[in-house]
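Incident log entry.

Two folding requests arrived from the same account within the same minute. Monitoring flagged them as a possible duplicate submission, but the sequences differ. Recording both here for audit purposes.

Request one:
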Amino acid sequence: MAHQDLPPPAGLLDDAGLFLDFDGTLVELADRPEAVMVGAPLHALLARLAQRLDGRVAIVSGRSIEQLDGFLGDTIAPYAVVGSHGAEIRPAGGTTLLPDRPASLAAAERAFTDRFGDDPRIVIEIKTLGVAIHYRGAPEVEQEAHALVDAFAQRDGLTAQAGKMMIELRMDGHDKGTAIATLCEDAPFAGHAPIFVGDDLTDEPGMVVAAHHGGAGILIGSMRDTAATYRLDNVAAFLDWLEKNA
């Protein structure tokens, strides 16, 4: 892992492909995943980015594509969109490519809801190809939540994915890095260095692939072990940088 702590330079996006995480990167994290706020300035910025980079922009998230459409709507119609940590991919203007949902996820949903569903501080988030336990409001259950998810991991190709104050059970065999690598094989991203921006441990595979393809990662948040080349302190700092470079 690299230990660099540099702000991204002006001109980094020139002739690049831009891959953007959503939560903690474009929008502030919220106590409940449905409570994030997407304001008009972000919609306008994303629309300008699509023109500035001739469509070489993608949203790459752990959320499902359906959830991302709910937040961003027609604004991301010109974008490629990756959901479910790389398991769902929708090329710009295309249809969503996704595998069948493992039946074992339904059993996990029931188990997670039976244990934590009555606690209003905890959110059980059902995703297209996963199910997550968000315990930001009850950090004392972290160990138990992780143990419960781990008990279901490895079943029928499922894996545990830790994040900020959450733990998710999702399909194995995909991550944000594999999705970015796939998108980089074809137009409009082929031949352009990928820049990936993210804040969480789930974003590290994307940072690695971006560097491998001649691009770079930008870490949002406090410094830690990371494959990113550059760093900005928070969402506001990144959006300010993006405004100046859009």
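Request two (distinct sequence, not a duplicate):
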Amino acid sequence: MAAFKHIVFDVDGTLIDSAESALRSLQQLVEEMTGAVPERDELRFSMGLAGKVTLERLGIYSVEALDRWAELSGALADTITVYPGVREALERLHAAGAELGIVSSRNHGEYRDEVAPLGLDGFFDIKVLVEDTVEHKPTPAPMLEYLRRAGIPASEALYVGDTDYDRQCAQRAGVAFAFATWGAANPVEGADFVLEAPADVLAVAGWGSP
């Protein structure tokens, strides 16, 4: 199998474990705005969605609410960690010559403040974040924007993610999807590849063995 030239990653639930920060801060926000404290399982639908979409689905969207969520999440940034094996897999892919990128529902401020300090940012040449497209996952718009920036056909990219929103975004853009099971809250059906550990992406993408 020919190697995929570009390996594109989701961030949350794929590269980093941010569930504690995301869900606890969303719980706090809902409590502040409604007085009710939802169970975390009720909020897991939000993992992988743009913040605006999440708050709209909860019926509490406003610019102020989105800013407050970012404030609450930022206060929990020290709970975010890189998944074991991710850094090593990125190092091996980068050394082998693969082009690495990001398509994420994070906004630029969140990425700068909560993701970049974890030390992975230097691996990625192209980053498509939530402000970069009008439509968001699960539409194909973010992945199509990545392909446009990279100047490549869909056949040359592989997208690695942990949710069905990621799968839909990739496949609707014609891009192969690899399901990252290590950070997934729910199973994803219909993935082109299933990864049990970060190192598995090397073999799947055609850049070496696990």
